[in-house]
Amino acid sequence: MKHCATFTVLLLITISAYSQDNGAVVPPIPAVSIADLEERIYAEDSSAQAAYLYIRGKTYYENKGTYLWDMVTEVYKRIKIYKKDGFDYADASIRYYSGNSRGTGFFKEVATYNLVNGVIEKTPLTSDGEFSSHPRDNYTEKKIKLPNVKEGSIVEYKYEIRTPHVGLRDWYFQYDIPVKDVRYDVSVPVYFSYNPYIIGYVPVEVAPQKLLFNNANKSTDKYYTYSAKKVKAFKDEAYVSNKKNYISTLSHQLTAMYSEGVVAKEFTLDWKKIAKSIYEDDRFGFELRRTSYYNNEINPLIGPLTTDIEKMNEIFTYVQNRMKWDEYGGYYCRDGVKKAYDIRKGNAAEINLMLVSMLRHANLDASPVLVSTRSNGVPFFPTDSSYDYVIAAVKTGGKTILLDATSKFSQPDILPLRALNWEGMLIKKDGSSEIADLTPKLVSRENYSVVAEVATDGIFKGKAKVQYVNHSAYVYREVLAVVSSDKYVEAFEEEKNGITINAHKINNLNDVSKPLIEEYDFSHTMVSDVIGDKIYFSPLLYFSVKENLFKQETREYPVDFTYPKQEKYMFFIKIPSGYKVEFLPKALTITMEENIGSFMYNLKQEGNTIQLVATLDINHHTVMPEYYQTLKDFFQKMIEKQNEKVILTRI
């Protein structure tokens, strides 16, 4: 049943409490008031540019005939705009399935409120503020842009989405702005069974389940209420893999459908059942078993080879060089491995299932590994959408080596970043499965070597050489493959304000078996201060870190560095004739508990040259939130040391 709120011009009444067909009553929301519009900051977070004052949602079902149901979700949102930076929160969009006449979505009761000469002014949405598009087949997106939005405005809107699909949408209790009051009511006919899951760190109040009779459907509903108040904004700080892993969210897994009290269809799945179901699908298992299309090419390649590693590397390189990824993920083949092989192009499944098949043909213990990419998030419960990608694995010598041939720059155990997401599911030949650890084991290294001299006017000139190894090399290769050398240098000069780069050169760009090496000449006019007869500069020059990216007092979610990493710096800086070193920063060595990481910094003078050796080690790809303060303090001390100045004095 739809519900409507009635407003008077002066807004003297509230939004009505609504009663559903099953008799459940939801408390009313107060009307927009003068006090609300006069409010200049959000009391719980003065930095907030906007805040959700109220969010209300309800999902219910309408019976459309035997075994036919529509699921209806109605949402109401009221947002207070405090600052210009918050204007974007006055806009909204919905996306919904529109593949048949039962799939619909629309906004209603959309308005902006402002305080004008002490009187509340309401500006309704007009048709020129509504937009509709079709981002993909069978789906529609509708957007609204609210009118007359200013600092201090309040906007509100409702929307309704109706669908013949009975998979409940995720409900969010937390956003990147604060939420004063959020509530979600779910009314599920007894014909459906769902497992609810709540993730995140917000304390969500869950009311006891009620059984209520639904007059419209002539059946019993299971009624649930979830609510939270004074929800803090999710602070999207540095080193977050995917914020949806940690934002407080309610999800539902459909487990069964019933007819006359008897299970008509069961959806209960566990991880292994999902893996087996995928394996038995012809778009996966059948494609994996196909071999005839490549025999003539693969047999001569592996004929003279004797070890598993040699065969693995040869086949991996062959597939990597032959195939072009079409940028589509997924774990099912679209056109099939044979067609992909013939046209030398395919999706992730076609390329990596082809790779597994060839490795097995060479008598290697190879298997596909289902993966949830970083953009898909960490799967918290088993569903068909828990995975969205597939890679390959080879077991040899007591180790499991991971492979992904979609990238020209990946290597064995150097996966594209998209695939580095905790755990995957390895599927064996018999359809059984086991957990596969996707976390990087190899330390990525960046070695910086600089030979420079400083002139009496404070200008630095020199040569730099940077060596990138493992994932560090992979990341730069991916960038340099799509950006021209000139554009890369231009961006570097813009980032490092004051530097001019000449004779820029990249070595081993396409030879992934070797470190990627970057070399260039430089001059820099803004890494020193000349005051009187003294020159001040940081010996790390333009490589010193200026800002600690860990700013929160506490952090409730992990710090994700993606992979273990070492940065090593060796600098030789010649001081100008007629100057002497008045001050060198002292050496520093700091370590973090649990072997999280360390920083070593040492300076010394040899004749007219200052020598710097510094090393930063981050030994874990992920650091748990209980060590956040340790990490924050560590980086603060490191940054302070990096920015201490050498002082040169004229003799």
Structure commentary:
By secondary structure, the protein is of the alpha+beta class. The chain folds into 3 domains: 37-266, Immunoglobulin-like; 271-437, Roll (C8orf32 fold), CATH 3.10.620.30; 444-650, Sandwich (Jelly Rolls), CATH 2.60.120.1130. It is built from 10 helices and 39 strands. A hairpin with an 8-residue loop joins strand 28 (499-507) and strand 29. The longest helix has 15 residues, at 308-322. The chain is globular, with a radius of gyration of 30 Å.
Mean pLDDT: 93
Strands, count = 39
Distance between the termini: 88 Å
Largest sheet: 9 strands, mixed
List unreliable stretches of 5+ residues.
1-19
Number of distinct helices: 10
Which CATH class of the largest domain?
Mainly Beta
State the assembly state of the protein chains.
single chain
CATH architecture of the largest domain: Sandwich
Morphology: globular
- Strand proportion, as a percent range, falls in 35-45%
Summing up helix and strand content along with how strands pair, one would put the structural category as alpha+beta
Keywords: Signal
Pfam families: DUF3857, Transglut_core
Protein name: DUF3857 domain-containing protein
InterPro entries: DUF3857 (IPR024618), Papain-like_cys_pep_sf (IPR038765), Transglutaminase-like (IPR002931)
